[in-house]
């Protein structure tokens, strides 16, 4: 009996040893495969700006965002905005948040963008507290003509936002024509974004 028990015990231990690596490695293999797939879809060859958007060349979604509470430009309250405010003029819609470090990095370029004639620069303040948004724009400057408070993040979801910052160009008919994912850098701003914006502005005149 003792000999039989010992043999069975050895057999069980050997089986466990043979199966153990498979059980441990399987989740790792699955995770690695999913991570690789996600990375490929996210970068599409290393260029995150090429992530396809289902909203390109389609009307901007319906929305109506209230203003950021207490946000002013001098003595004038900065208004929120809705889809109706996109009609009639090329609009650049920038999604930002005070807690977003890349938003702070791209902010000087937005101030440059605000000087471009023929457009309106609008901001969607994403999942932020009013006091933090006011402090952010108060310290860096407010380049936006209107700022809508998307405190729950619902509007950003409807716009297909992956994360902040993101910047959209909407033509005068309210159609989304271009989407830039991530923070603008001097290179991407001058070499990529501005040429795309100019094409849309030229098309809006015709």
TrEMBL record:
<dbReference type="InterPro" id="IPR017937">
    <property type="entry name" value="Thioredoxin_CS"/>
</dbReference>
<keyword id="KW-1133">Transmembrane helix</keyword>
<feature type="transmembrane region" description="Helical">
    <location>
        <begin position="20"/>
        <end position="40"/>
    </location>
</feature>
<keyword id="KW-1015">Disulfide bond</keyword>
<keyword id="KW-0812">Transmembrane</keyword>
<dbReference type="InterPro" id="IPR036249">
    <property type="entry name" value="Thioredoxin-like_sf"/>
</dbReference>
<dbReference type="InterPro" id="IPR050553">
    <property type="entry name" value="Thioredoxin_ResA/DsbE_sf"/>
</dbReference>
<feature type="domain" description="Thioredoxin">
    <location>
        <begin position="54"/>
        <end position="199"/>
    </location>
</feature>
<dbReference type="Pfam" id="PF08534">
    <property type="entry name" value="Redoxin"/>
</dbReference>
<dbReference type="InterPro" id="IPR013766">
    <property type="entry name" value="Thioredoxin_domain"/>
</dbReference>
<protein>
    <submittedName>
        <fullName>Cytochrome c biogenesis protein CycY</fullName>
    </submittedName>
</protein>
<keyword id="KW-0676">Redox-active center</keyword>
<keyword id="KW-0472">Membrane</keyword>
<dbReference type="GO" id="GO:0017004">
    <property type="term" value="P:cytochrome complex assembly"/>
</dbReference>
<dbReference type="InterPro" id="IPR004799">
    <property type="entry name" value="Periplasmic_diS_OxRdtase_DsbE"/>
</dbReference>
<dbReference type="InterPro" id="IPR013740">
    <property type="entry name" value="Redoxin"/>
</dbReference>
<comment type="similarity">
    <text>Belongs to the thioredoxin family. DsbE subfamily.</text>
</comment>
<keyword id="KW-0201">Cytochrome c-type biogenesis</keyword>
<dbReference type="GO" id="GO:0015036">
    <property type="term" value="F:disulfide oxidoreductase activity"/>
</dbReference>
<dbReference type="GO" id="GO:0030288">
    <property type="term" value="C:outer membrane-bounded periplasmic space"/>
</dbReference>
């Amino acid at each position: 009996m003792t000999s039989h028990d010992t043999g069975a015990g050895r057999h069980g231990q050997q089986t466990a040893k043979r199966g153990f690596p498979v059980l441990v490695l399987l989740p790792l293999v699955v995770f690695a495969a999913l991570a690789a797939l996600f990375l490929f879809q996210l970068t599409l060859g290393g260029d995150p700006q090429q992530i396809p958007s289902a909203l390109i060349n389609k009307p901007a979604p319906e929305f109506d965002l209230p203003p950021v509470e207490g946000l002013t430009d001098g003595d004038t309250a900065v208004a929120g905005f809705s889809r109706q405010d996109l009609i009639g003029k090329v609009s650049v819609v920038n999604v930002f948040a005070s807690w977003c470090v890349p938003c702070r990095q791209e902010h000087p370029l937005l101030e440059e963008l605000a000087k471009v004639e023929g457009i309106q620069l609008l901001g969607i303040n994403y999942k932020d507290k009013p006091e933090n948004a006011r402090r952010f724009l108060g310290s860096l400057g407010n380049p936006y003509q209107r700022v809508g408070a998307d405190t729950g993040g619902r509007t950003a979801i409807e716009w297909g936002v992956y994360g902040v910052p993101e910047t959209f160009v909407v033509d005068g008919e309210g159609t989304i024509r271009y989407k830039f994912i991530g923070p603008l850098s001097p290179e991407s701003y001058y070499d990529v974004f501005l040429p795309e914006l100019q094409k849309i502005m030229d098309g809006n005149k015709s």
